[in-house]
């Protein structure tokens, strides 16, 4: 059997390793330059590859193709493969066939990284043999090849879910759904929503779907579509018959029995969205029989994800916060919502079809100045020019931070929360966040 892997990044190389271990004839093809660390792995494992091109004769010879999540379905080589009837799947589909471990799959427009890290943290504290991967950390396929985990906690993007056929997590979590990546979904929100719900399409009555009861998009979809899995919602607003909810500010889990886990005031991560992330993670852990003491302790001592509302430094009474991971409007909404002081907001990058009007009430209430960080800031300027007196355009993280330093006064917050992708000025959101942090340290 010939396995062709398109894209030699984390998921591609992981799939190649697992494929070779399982006896496939593996060929890796990347249209760009393969990073040195991945090239070494391919050479060490004696896996044949090409870079800077796709040789069609070698690719069309495949029995099965694993496409990296970054490659859109619209690309001509992918279309051609599908026309020839060659199966094109994602890494999680390929790897899930080779593990007997329980899979906890986590998706959503925002909060999925934090929730994935929380679930992993709780399960480790509960002494379970667990590995974390998918869209975060190591590739799932490589973990399956090299470790024997009893549980895999996977962060799953919609792109990874687009390439599944039989993949079914035992526990699925959908943190929330708001417009994102619409450029990959023909600018139709409906397509993106359906993509997220693929996480539950192969689940059975013995599986669980944990979701945000307060999220209208999710609730509406569930009203109109059948799901086999047991539904376990979480809510900040409603006391539920079954699921996770707040009662007298306590987080309560109700499934078969009712347990008070902890008071929400003792959660390590602050903000409504993080309370929801904690509820989802607690529910998943309790299904996996982790003791409630271990759940509580984990939620009290958890340290958040880098680049997600990360405090950098306080300089002259001004707090600098790195929220570079906010690559869509909804994530930035959470960030602005959690600001308690007048805010100098650094925003902008590659716009994925954003509608900034959702942010208007928060900007009116909290933002004293806007610093644009992107090559094309027209939409941001047009949206907010009547509500914010000062809007400055800058051409990089260092300049943005220097301008913020001049504008901000004692007691203010400088918040990098771009609401956009980073690919115009930076390699990725991590690079953007790191450049921001470096610039703050050099003030």
Keyphrases for this structure?
globular; UDP-N-acetylmuramoyl-L-alanine:D-glutamate ligase; 443 residues; 35% helix; alpha/beta; Rossmann fold; Protein-Tyrosine Phosphatase, Chain A; single chain
Protein architecture, described:
With 443 residues, this protein is an alpha/beta fold. The mean pLDDT is 94. It is 35% helix and 23% strand. It is globular. The chain folds into 3 domains: 2-89, 3-Layer(aba) Sandwich (Rossmann fold), CATH 3.40.50.720; 93-301, 3-Layer(aba) Sandwich (UDP-N-acetylmuramoyl-L-alanine:D-glutamate ligase); 310-441, Protein-Tyrosine Phosphatase, Chain A. It has 17 helices and 20 strands. Helix 1 packs parallel to helix 7 (140-146), helix 6 crosses helix 11 (272-287) and helix 16 packs across helix 17 (429-441). The strands form 3 sheets. It has a 9-stranded mixed β-sheet, covered by helices on one side. It has a 6-stranded mixed β-sheet with strand order 15-16-20-17-18-19, sandwiched between helices. A 5-stranded parallel β-sheet has the order 3-2-1-4-5, with helices on both faces. Its EC number is 6.3.2.9.
